[in-house]
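Notes continue from the previous slide.

Worked example: a multi-chain complex. Inputs as given:
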Amino acid sequence: MKTRIFLLLISSTLTLIFTSCSDMRVDVQPAPEVGVHPEGIINPKSSNFHGVLIQNINWKMNECQNCHAADYSGGITGASCLTCHTQPAGPEACNTCHGVFNNPNIIAPNKGAHYKHLYTASSGKSVECIACHIVPEQFKSVGHIDDSKGAEINFGSIALTETNEPGTQDYDASLSLFTPVPTYNKTSQTCSNTYCHGYFKNGNTENAVSFTVGSNGAKCGSCHGDAATGNPLPKTSAQGGTHPNVTSCNACHSGVVDLVNGNWVISDPTKHINGLLNIFGQERDY
Ligand code: HEC
Ligand code: HEC
Ligand code: HEC
Ligand code: HEC
Ligand code: HEC
Ligand code: HEC
């Protein structure tokens, strides 16, 4: 396919130099019945569908622009992409590849980390793309499409939140500064060393969470407290920490948690895992 397009490109360029556009299709190639593309170019069910062709050339749409014009309006082909791709950026609109055709919202595939963070998040602040990826401004922004297949993980500021910062109200000189160095393991699909999952003051700094089905990453006690019993009480002096050894969480963290049928539940997810300590009705850097 690649070679074919390439040859066609050369031939159509040569043809353009020596003849007029209207002769383009008859000159070098035998007059094609179905045009330059194999049949199925606009049939989403065909293996020749143009979306598939683009994927096969690692999304290098400049190869299409060579004939269909830089602005995709058709150029020498007379076949515009914009009749169907009606967003201002044409086929480069984010939703063309990340979501529903012609719905301008970006929708990431509902699987893996996305499943829990974007679509079924119930215990914490909703997580935005930028928490885990560099979000390109445009399709052609540097770093977006590269030669290594698949998405890159680049943690944003929330995962990097430092805690026990000197000068903050709750600073404890007996503990050092907690500086997360978040890492993502592509093979095991596991995140470790993130603020969000426990790398913070009195938290479970060793916690590594996997995004495979059945993962217990959202269970009370997994990020702070005891993962085995589910008790969320952060490390007290008995475990080398500084959190008060009192289990009635909502006495001090009211508005974040509630006791329901003997279990602590998050009553306001916007205040939980937001990078700030919610205590005594205040929101503090800590
Ligand atoms: C060598 C020039 C050339 C290149 C390169 C090229 N096309 Fe085309 N394309 C054409 C021509 C000419 C037509 C109109 C005739 C036809 O349908 O074959 C066309 C038609 C189409 C159509 C059908 C449009 C319609 O309204 O029916 C689609 C879709 C399309 N091209 C997508 C692509 C994509 C995607 C790429 C890049 C992977 C690409 N083309 C690369 C020349 C080219
Ligand atoms: C006749 C309408 C039509 C034309 C013309 C058209 N497209 Fe598409 N294109 C679609 C539809 C519909 C989809 C989504 C198919 C789906 O979701 O199954 C799509 C999907 C795509 C995708 C997404 C591929 C993926 O796998 O996510 C890209 C990229 C794309 N088109 C680029 C182009 C380019 C470049 C052109 C012009 C060269 C073009 N399209 C012309 C209808 C069109
Ligand atoms: C909590 C972290 C997290 C958030 C938030 C997140 N992603 Fe991802 N994303 C991942 C991980 C992990 C992968 C899998 C990377 C791998 O192993 O290849 C991934 C993969 C992807 C892929 C490749 C999908 C595939 O099928 O290969 C795309 C595209 C993507 N993300 C876009 C987005 C967009 C757009 C958003 C926001 C709407 C978003 N992500 C939000 C963690 C995240
Ligand atoms: C023509 C298809 C296409 C379009 C249009 C597109 N993307 Fe992507 N995007 C991809 C692919 C493919 C990947 C996976 C990265 C790779 O394979 O190198 C990706 C990856 C991503 C990721 C994960 C981080 C990364 O770079 O790996 C984010 C976030 C993202 N895209 C957002 C956007 C946004 C925002 C837009 C609009 C400005 C956009 N994309 C437009 C195909 C597209
Ligand atoms: C995914 C990791 C994670 C899980 C699971 C988790 N927490 Fe948290 N929790 C945090 C982080 C991070 C903080 C630090 C403060 C912040 O950013 O909101 C925190 C803080 C708290 C606080 C202090 C108030 C606040 O938000 O600042 C309470 C109370 C709390 N969690 C209760 C719970 C309870 C109850 C559960 C189980 C329903 C739970 N947590 C499960 C990560 C988690
Ligand atoms: C008597 C008041 C009080 C109660 C009750 C309390 N906390 Fe805290 N909590 C604090 C104070 C004070 C801090 C900040 C000081 C510190 O870091 O030790 C804090 C901080 C936290 C943090 C951030 C990490 C840390 O230690 O700085 C988490 C998470 C947390 N509490 C969860 C809980 C959970 C879950 C419960 C219930 C099992 C609970 N707290 C009960 C007073 C309380």
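Summary box: Confidence is low (pLDDT under 50) at residues 1-34. Strands lie at 183-185, 190-192, 208-210, 257-260, 263-266, 277-279, 282-284.
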